[in-house]
Amino acid sequence: PVKYRKDYKPSAYLIHETKLDFDLFDDHSIVTARLKLQANPNADPSDSLVLDGEELKLLEIFINGQKLESAQYETDSEQLTVWLDKVHNLNYQQNSFELMTKVRIYPNTNTSLEGLYLSNGKFCTQCEAEGFRKITYYSDRPDVMSIFTVRIEAAQQKYPHLLSNGNQTEHGKLANGRHYAIWHDPFRKPSYLFALCAGNYDLLEDHFKTQSGRKIKLEIYVDKGKLEQCHHAMASLKKAMAWDEEVFGLEYDLDIYMVVAVGDFNMGAMENKGLNIFNTKYVLAHSDTATDQDFEDVEAVIAHEYFHNWTGNRVTCRDWFQLSLKEGLTVFRDQQFTADQTDHAVKRIEDVKVIRSHQFAEDAGPMAHPIRPDSYIEMNNFYTVTVYNKGAEIIRMYHTLLGAGGFRHGMDLYFERHDGQAVTCEDFVCAMEDANEYDLKQFRRWYSQAGTPELTVTSEYDELHRKLTLHVKQTCPDTPGQSNKQPFHIPLKLGLLDKEGKDLPLQLAANPEQLTGDILHITQLEQSFEFTEIAQQPVLSLLRNFSAPVRLHYDYNDHELAFLFAHDSDPFNQWEAGQRLFARVIWQLCAEQEAGEVMQFPLHLVNAVQNLLSSESLDGRFKALALTLPDIKALIEEVERVNLDHLIVAHNFLKKELACQLEMDWLVHYQANHHVGKFQQDKTSIAQRAFAGVCLSYLVALEKPKAYELAVSQLLNSNNMTDAETGLKLLMHSNYEDKQQLADDFYQKWQNEDLVVNKWFMSQATDPSDPTIERVETLIEHPAFDLKNPNKVRAVVGAFAGANLAQFHRKDGQGYVFLAEQIKRLYSVNPQTAARLTGAFNRWKKFDDERQRLMCEQLQGILQLPDLSKDVYEIASKALG
Ligand code: ARG
Ligand code: ZN
Question: For the Peptidase M1 alanyl aminopeptidase C-terminal domain, which residue ranges apply (predicted)?
Answer without folding.
Answer: 558-880
